[in-house]
Amino acid sequence: MHPKIASLLSRFPRIELIRWETPVQYLPKVSAKLGVDVYVKRDDLTGFGIGGNKVRKLEFLLGDAMAKGCDTVITTGAVHSNHAFVTALAAKSLGLDAVLVLRGKEQMKGNYLLDRLMGIETRVFDVDKTGDLWPIAREVAEELKKAGRKPYLIPAGGASPVGTLGYVRAAGEIHSQMKGLGVEFDSVVDAVGSGGTLAGLILGSALIEAPWKVFGMDVGGFVEGLSERVRNLALDAAGLLGVKVEVPEPEIRDYGFGAYGKIVKEVAELIRFVGTSEGIILDPVYTGKAFYGLMDLAERGELGERVLFIHTGGFPGVFHYGEEMLKLIQKA
Ligand code: 5PA
Fold first, then answer.
1. What digits encode the pLDDT tens for the residues 217-257?
2. Does 134 lie in the same domain as 42?
3. Which of 55, 71, 227, 311 has a CA that sits 20 to 30 A from residue 199's CA?
4. What is the distance between the alpha carbons of residues 264 and 329, in angstroms, rounded to a whole number?
5. Ligand 1 — pocket residues by CB below 6 A?
């Protein structure tokens, strides 16, 4: 851990959900194919629930919720939301209640199946992708307050300044691991949904003057004005930390293939390639699209000689969309 980041974060309450530094692993086959050294930070192995990036944010979000004496966590997402499931699971493990306000149709697969299996309270609304769940979440909070509860609202994806601290911390972890490996990364690449992961990486990297440039792969216009939103999240998190730092304009590239959650053949084939060559399973909504973007940009020479991909998890998405992917591959 970079000492500057450790010291800046020390005054924020954090619940330790991750008990190790996630490994950084070299990908020999992918690197040979691209002629660029590709490493993966295995944040799919954060180790709580289904793992993934959300666990890093939750360490700080739930730390804040507990410090404020809240007893119920409310958050939102799609029915297939990785964030929603792991948030509720972590809340429950700490003795808190959780209510998930979800968008879409109930389908007994992927994360929704896990929600139900774990007895998590879900409220599902069949609104379209642009439908805002936040007012509904606030209503639920009001309802709980009237019943004498103390709710803690977490925005979709945990994208708040407090949640962003999780990836500020990750930047410090990456820095010390890079030194340990004796290499220098030219670029760090991650999938961008709600933006908190990218915002934290950008801020953390700026704070320690990291040698790498951070690239965010937009997986399908999940939110309007993504670049501005990411920058504002990074600036707000810097405000929280009480630091003055130059936050660069986010470098975001569109690899959404037209829509968030759209399952495409190119990504399904890439998931098969990375799985069968490196033993790493990517998902079709986030990490598969982001890795596609990484390979495309690396081939164009935009990422330098050494690239680090953040595997942000999302494994249940394979089971939510597996049949769809299989049909696309079999058509070939
Ligand atoms: C998600 C998001 P950010 O939301 O921090 O930008 O992270 C993107 C991301 N990888 C990357 C995986 C596996 C993700 O699940 N997921 C959301 C969810 O509801 O699960 C917030 C959209």
1. 999 875 668 999 999 999 999 999 999 999 999 999 999 99
2. no
3. 71
4. 9
5. 52-53, 77-78, 81-84, 156-157, 159, 191-198, 283, 286-287, 312-314
Q: What are phi and psi of 216, to 5 degrees?
A: -105, 135
Tell me how many domains the chain contains: 2
Instruction: Answer whether 158's CB lies under 8 Å from 54's CB.
Output: yes
What mean pLDDT is predicted for residues 125-131?
73
Nearest atom of ligand 1 to the alpha carbon of 196? 5
196 and 112 in a common domain: no
Closest CA to 82 of 285, 260, 231, 292: 285
User: Which residue segment(s) compose the domain that 102 sits in?
Assistant: 54-158
Domain check: are 181 and 294 in the same one?
yes
> Which atom from ligand 1 is nearest to the alpha carbon of 314?
13
In sequence order, which residues have a C-beta less than 8 Å from that of residue 182 and are 6 or more positions away? Answer: none
Q: Whose CA is nearest to atom 2 of ligand 1?
A: 193
Q: Could you tell me the distance, in angstroms and rounded to a whole number, from the CA of residue 240 to the centre of ligand 1?
A: 22
Same domain, 279 and 314: yes
- Asked if residue 227 and residue 95 are part of one domain, the reply reads no
CATH number of the structural domain spanning residue 273: 3.40.50.1100
Distance CA 270, CA 147 (A): 49
Q: CA–CA separation, 311 vs 286, rounded Å?
A: 9
Q: Are residues 280 and 173 part of one domain?
A: yes
Q: Is-contact 46 18, C-beta < 8 A?
A: yes
**CB 193 within 8 Å of CB 219:** yes
Question: Does pTM top 0.85 for this prediction?
Answer: yes
Confidence of residue 126 (pLDDT cuts 50, 70, 90): confident
